[in-house]
Amino acid sequence: MGTAEKAKAEMERVAGRAVKKAAHALGKETLAAKGAALEARGNARRIKEKGKDAFG
Q: What is the rounded distance in angstroms from the CA atom of residue 51 to the CA atom of residue 29?
């Protein structure tokens, strides 16, 4: 597995969490939902990459 994919997953998680928290603080629920979706995508990518490690 490439470290680039791991880094991309981690960046999505961190960016999504930051966007979500900032949007909640500003009261922008639509943007908070987009941040949560980005964080979830990063989590899913991380799980996929861990699965590849287990079999590879």
A: 33
CA distance 1 to 15: 22
* pLDDT tens digits, 23-34: 999 999 999 999
> CB pairs under 8 A, 24+ apart, for 33-39?
38/12, 39/12, 39/13
- Select the more confidently predicted residue: 20 or 54: 20
Residue type, 40: A
Q: Which H/E stretch holds residue 55? A: helix 29-55
Q: What is the DSSP letter of 1?
A: -
